[in-house]
Amino acid sequence: MRYIAFVVPILFLIPMAPSQKTTPETTVVTSGRPMEEVAVRLQDAYGKVVTYEEPILTWREELEPRNGRSPEEKWGLYPKAMTFSMRAINAASDLGPFLNDAIAAYHAQTSGIRFKLLSSKLGYHIVPVQARDESGRLGAAESILDRVITVPGEARTAEGQLNAIGEAVNDTLPIRLVISAVPAKVHGFDSAFRAKPEEFEWGIQNLSARDALIDLFDRSASSFSWHLMCQASVQLVDRFCALNVGLLAIDEIDSEGKPQKRVLVFDRTPKK
Length: 272
Hints:
This protein is of the alpha+beta class. The protein contains 5 helices and 17 strands. Strands 4, 8, 9, 10, 12, 14 and 15 form a 7-stranded mixed beta sheet that branches. Helix 1 runs antiparallel to helix 2 and helix 3 runs antiparallel to helix 5 (209-217).
């Protein structure tokens, strides 16, 4: 299969500051979003889709202000860093069991959001199942992408179809969903999707937003992945979630033996 690569900056609307230390046997992850960091690392190492989703945090013990800001300010709260260790990444092992082991290690060593692993024709999906409420009690939680939506069938560009999913989600919630999808000028979402014709008929009825994304991206010439990250804030009206959609970026070694990343596009096209 022939891959075409270009570098695309993905617009993350939520600041992050992860760090990671690795030994031959274990990997130590320190981040405000440890499982999001794991999703990035494993997707890059395996070259397979690993998505991440989270709910909005509301318990103040899990949140902190940054850069001298007041916690009462708009968008003034961010997840506190947590640390856990997992098996060192080995792309020769099966990705699904490795992800389940990583989630189990995270659960055993932290008190943060509880996750489960789903699989689909696209890849693997790390999704929340429990989180702490404003009093600190652990209870059931869901992702915005669990919302059941309907998108009327209509001819749109690929980006238009993606935005239609976002509009359908926003019709069901008081919390705003913002979509950021491969925001490059030359190679944008439509170019990487490579729909033929450019505008195509598509719609869904009574599916979760996640399943709608899977169905849409399964029609693409390129593999897309997403991270749903949510911004905490004291006021409900200021809270929102960002759906960051991007292409796979795989770890490689260049001709000089130095590590590099290569962004894949058109990796789902038939072999020529």
